[in-house]
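Lecture notes, continued. The same structure-token format from the folding unit now serves as the input rather than the output. Read the line below as a description of shape only.
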């Protein structure tokens, strides 16, 4: 009979496991295996192996050490396959738990192969309980990091029946959808308003300005259900004022023809405040000069708060009640000039009739040139004296500022106004803030923020913690002392460094923890230094190891 190589049929066997080990590799097959010796002949050669089947060195010859319960398990409990001859098949058995029928295959219904390594959580000595040093990190190995209220939840609360592979990381998987007061909210994603970091469903946060087309001004920052009513259902409320604030219009039909409705005049913060009204667009009179800054009621008289006097298109100066008898005297009880004559002198268009006189009195070469703010001032605002006949007196008028302007500083800064102010300019354009240099956000503050409204300016606080400065809004309530600049910069940035400014250095997992998780209030102090002050003893210890956590654990992780 022609000699036949065993590997011609059994080539796969000689490439792995026992046959690839140094003990067997290179040796002829017939040293252990003999053919044609009868049906009961030991074809697998166990009697040629020292110790037989029970003495087989699984770690050295099969590259898989038997530990724990596996060491006491009979071979045939795992090697259940047979060959055509009826003999047990030992080669080709997978080491993945459940893959060869030893254990239930994928009891947790994991989707990815990386989770089928049961030894990440289970030991070979016992299946339950799981290993204390298991190689699993929910934040690292899943798409749902545990933060806020999720941190203290037991595994079984979210994974009943040991089904650890959830199809979707959605709130509704574990939480029943609450019945909101508005059906609209039942159709929206939970995370638009809620987050695990808030630790309770009663807390919510929704950025109405960013998530909707209707920014909430001060007057609209009210309870959600005030606008999103149950009666409205899942529909979005209208943005028209009239739809939310029904009732009789306070102005009647006076402004029905004005586009934009209520919002064309009123701001959402307060009904009584008039934000803007395009007078030049909606009427025949564009407001300029003093007309642009006076109150509406100064011209539009009324018998009630909702009524506005209608001039029926008349835009002349003397048609206004305020100017009806201007320049009147005994000979001219209704005024010496007509409406058409008013603009010949007033507002400079056309120029006044006596340009030479004006140049002499207030020209560039005069003792008091009219520049900047003074250029637009009416003559009679400075020239208030009258002669015996009631005519304006233009001479003998002092050029000192105090002659026309009240000293807003009440003498606190002396009488030399020109030290800070220029003629015709109210702003102190010459003043330099040198004694206390303004840095960061201080540059954007108005003077009254620090100096108050009395305009005396002197005696303003210079320390952040002063009661008149930031002491009144100290969110730390004095717990951190009065040297605010240790942590805060003038531009609003926070330069606090836990490693430098605190006795408790942050390392390991502590570096990624949000401030409010350890410091629930902005007083910050006092806080515990020991682990047990923040972390309760885990249930896995069964109360046996006390609270000296650092004997076994480090800040790199609990394991």
């Amino acid at each position: 009979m022609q000699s036949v190589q065993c590997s011609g049929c059994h080539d796969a066997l000689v490439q792995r496991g026992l046959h690839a080990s140094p003990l067997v590799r290179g040796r002829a097959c017939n040293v252990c295996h003999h053919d044609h010796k009868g049906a009961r002949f030991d074809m697998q050669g166990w009697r040629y192996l020292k110790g037989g089947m029970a003495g087989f060195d699984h770690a050295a010859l099969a590259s898989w050490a038997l530990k724990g319960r596996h060491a006491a398990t009979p071979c045939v409990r795992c090697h259940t396959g047979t060959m055509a001859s009826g003999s047990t098949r030992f080669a080709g058995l997978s080491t993945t738990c459940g893959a060869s029928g030893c254990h239930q295959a994928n009891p947790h219904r994991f989707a990815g192969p990386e989770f089928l390594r049961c030894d990440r959580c289970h030991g070979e000595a016992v299946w339950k309980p799981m290993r204390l040093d298991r190689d699993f990190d929910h934040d690292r190995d899943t798409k749902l990091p545990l933060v806020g209220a999720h941190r203290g939840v037991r595994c079984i609360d979210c994974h009943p029946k040991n089904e650890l592979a959830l199809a979707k990381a959605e709130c509704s998987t574990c939480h029943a959808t609450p019945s909101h007061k508005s059906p609209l909210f039942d159709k929206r994603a939970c995370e638009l308003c809620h987050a695990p970091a808030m630790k309770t469903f009663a807390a919510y946060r929704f950025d109405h300005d960013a998530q909707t087309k209707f920014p909430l001004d001060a007057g609209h920052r009210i309870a959600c259900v005030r606008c999103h009513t149950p009666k409205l259902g899942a529909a979005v409320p209208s943005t028209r004022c009239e739809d939310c604030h029904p009732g009789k219009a306070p102005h009647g039909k006076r402004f029905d023809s004005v586009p934009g409705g209520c919002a064309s005049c009123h701001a959402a913060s307060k009904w009584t405040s008039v934000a803007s009204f395009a007078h030049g667009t909606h009427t025949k009179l564009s407001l300029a000069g003093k007309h642009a800054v006076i109150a509406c009621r100064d011209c539009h008289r009324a018998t009630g708060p909702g009524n506005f006097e209608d001039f029926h298109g008349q835009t002349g100066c003397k048609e206004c009640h305020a100017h009806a008898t201007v320049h009147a005297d005994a000979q001219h009880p209704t005024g010496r000039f007509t409406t058409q004559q008013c603009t010949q002198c007033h507002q400079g268009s056309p120029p006044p009739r006596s340009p030479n006189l004006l140049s002499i009195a207030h020209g560039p070469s005069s003792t008091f040139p009219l520049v900047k703010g003074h250029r637009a001032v009416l003559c009679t605002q400075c020239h208030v004296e009258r002669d015996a006949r009631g005519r304006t007196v233009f001479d003998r008028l002092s050029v000192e500022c105090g002659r026309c302007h009240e000293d807003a500083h009440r003498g606190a800064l002396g009488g030399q106004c020109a030290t800070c102010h220029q003629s015709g300019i109210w702003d102190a354009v010459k003043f330099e803030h040198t004694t206390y240099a303004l840095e960061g956000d201080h540059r954007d503050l108005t003077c009254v923020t620090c100096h108050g409204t009395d305009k005396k300016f002197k005696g303003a606080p210079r320390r952040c913690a002063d009661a008149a400065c930031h002491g009144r809004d100290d969110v730390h309530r004095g717990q951190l002392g009065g040297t605010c600049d240790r942590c805060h910069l003038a531009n609003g940035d926070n330069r606090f460094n836990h490693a430098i400014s605190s006795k408790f250095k942050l390392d390991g997992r502590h570096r990624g923890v949000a401030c409010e998780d350890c410091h629930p209030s902005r007083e910050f102090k006092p806080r515990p230094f020991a682990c047990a002050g923040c972390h309760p003893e885990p249930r896995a210890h069964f109360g046996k190891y006390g609270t000296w956590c650092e004997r076994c654990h480090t800040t790199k992780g609990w394991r």
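Point for the exam: Residues 13-65 form one domain.
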